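Dear colleague,

Thank you for sharing your sequence with our group. We've completed the structure prediction you requested, and as agreed, I am returning the results in plain text so they can be pasted directly into your records. Please verify that the sequence below matches your submission; if there's any discrepancy, let me know and we will rerun it promptly.
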Amino acid sequence: MIFAIETEEQTLHVFVNENAAVAYCEGLDVEAEIWQFWNAEGSPLAPEFTVPNKREVFTVQNGKYHLVKATDNHHSSLLEALEHVAAVEGLPPLNTVAAIRQCLTHHSSGTAKASPSS
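Please find the predicted structure tokens below.
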């Protein structure tokens, strides 16, 4: 699962996988930092372009990119970013800020509980 916030409208989109996110979020907008991405655990992801965007006199063309782990301080965790989300576009049950916050909190606490018994 990939989470992406469209920063102009502050809308969080929930994608089933990276391919769906990349297909929806155009390279030109990604390069302009209109989109920010997180993985299923809420950790920041960054775009890595394999084909650059092209801008010519009368045309523009989206490049190709994939998502990689973001460098430290690239952008906040998804839990922190949820404070600024105005709307969510996702399928139930992940279609509200509260549901996503609960999912992320449960995931992180589930990981913490699993570690001591390992």
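Summary note from our side: The first strand starts at residue 2 and ends at 6.

Kind regards,
the structure core
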